[in-house]
């Protein structure tokens, strides 16, 4: 299979099920941002020297491929028949993230203030991935206001952003890097 097909040269792409839409379509924007999120997580994973966190991130990346397939497959009855091989996101996926969040939080101190994103390169990359996740969530919300979207997609993205935040904190702690608290006084001094 060639990597290029020329079928998108005029700004159109195919959804699962064969429907042609603009590359600027809300659905394409939503699953495209999920793809960007997956790449951001891959970058973060490559920078983290912790097998436990790495394996969690790789599992998330696999789930995101499934989530992207769900978004790329309209839930309308005609498309659903032609794309019956697509597994829809399940609420249990978010439960797995909640369990991972609880486990990670058991190893780190509770926050008493906001913290600045940063620390190790891996932790900083996880914070970037968290912000991309929040953007993906906003894109899916926008799509869901126009079209039918599997409800568990939004739940999963919401929990995933929380997990990425907690894993960034855990990565810093395991590396012995202290978090930098946000200070409103320092904020005023910098301006």
How would the blueprint of this fold be written?
Layout (H helix, E strand, L loop, with lengths): L11 E3 L5 E3 L3 H22 L3 H21 L5 H6 L8 H15 L15 H24 L6 H24 L9 H7 L1
Antiparallel strand pairs: 1-2
Helix pairs in contact: 1-2, 1-5, 2-6, 4-6, 5-6
What do you see in this structure?
This protein has 191 residues and is mainly α. The chain has one domain (14-107, 116-190): Hypothetical Protein Ta1238, Chain: A (Up-down Bundle). Helix content is 62%, strand content 3%. The protein contains seven helices and two strands. It has helices at 26-47, 51-71, 77-82, 91-105, 121-144, 151-174, 184-190; strands at residues 12-14, 20-22. Strands 1-2 form a two-stranded antiparallel ribbon. Strand 1 (12-14) and strand 2 form a beta hairpin. Helix 1 runs antiparallel to helix 2 (51-71), helix 1 runs antiparallel to helix 5 and helix 4 (91-105) packs parallel to helix 6. The longest helix has 24 residues, at 121-144. The mean pLDDT is 88.
Short note summarizing the structure:
The chain is mainly alpha-helical and 191 residues long. It has helices at 26-47, 51-71, 77-82, 91-105, 121-144, 151-174, 184-190, and strands spanning 12-14, 20-22.
